[in-house]
């Protein structure tokens, strides 16, 4: 593998909070908690990476890289899993198959990703200063670098956390629930068995539903009265449409 394969990949650990329900018997009380351990894994020696086993001390020690641990307020046992994510990151079935050149390439990609992010941030700051007529001498480059590196990790962590929490929520739901995206916009989260369906609502401006099926795509636009009434506009696209065929909005009221 070369460094390009690793540039947009991360190693995400999965944490399960448990409770003791009997002698040496544990029951999960919360799942789907994830956090980024890419840098921690890549800083390990190759032989240590190859010998990782879930729910053992070397893996459980990675909890130190989870900034949200204290907020969980969990006093019981927990289980940390990461070996599957490590194998997937390196593209192997067994950790013993990770080669030294793979680890070297991954480390190079990690540093390259940081350098690219810092370069973009510095360029953006310089451009902003020039446009505002300010001197570049006033730029605090060290602060820009520190902030960029911190945000690069925290944003990726938040995205993974949201993805994991949404998956857990959809599994737990028995009926749709609204999630607030902004003060005036909500997204309808549906149970997993509903398939690929999403509804977006805006205060006083109705709702739009988007649903992908094996046959294609359906889009329905409703007014403020809600989706129990006839849609104002609808679009039905089959696979040919999605491959680039031009279409027009068709109203069911025409």
How would you summarize what this structure contains?
This protein is of the alpha+beta class.
Give a description of the structure.
The structure is a single chain. The chain has 254 residues and is α+β, with helices and mostly antiparallel strands. The chain has two domains: 1-172, no CATH class; 177-242. The protein is 37% helix and 25% strand. The chain has eight helices and nine strands. It has helices spanning 38-42, 46-50, 57-60, 69-72, 83-90, 100-131, 141-172, 239-242, and strands at residues 12-22, 25-36, 78-81, 177-180, 185-189, 196-202, 207-213, 216-222, 233-238. The strands form two sheets. A six-stranded antiparallel β-sheet has the order 4-5-6-7-8-9. A three-stranded antiparallel β-sheet has the order 2-1-3. α6 crosses α7. The protein is globular, with a radius of gyration of 24 Å. The model is unreliable at 245-254 (pLDDT under 50).
Average pLDDT over all residues: 82
Number of helices: 8
**Radius of gyration from the alpha-carbon trace, in angstroms:** 24 Å
Overall geometry comes to globular
Order of helices and strands: EEHHHHEHHHEEEEEEH
Share of helical residues: 25-40%
Low-confidence stretches: 245-254
- Structure classification: alpha+beta
Q: Tell me about the biggest sheet? A: 6 strands, antiparallel
In the sheet with the most strands, the strands line up as: 4-5-6-7-8-9
How many strands? 9
Q: Roughly how many Å apart are the termini? A: 57 Å
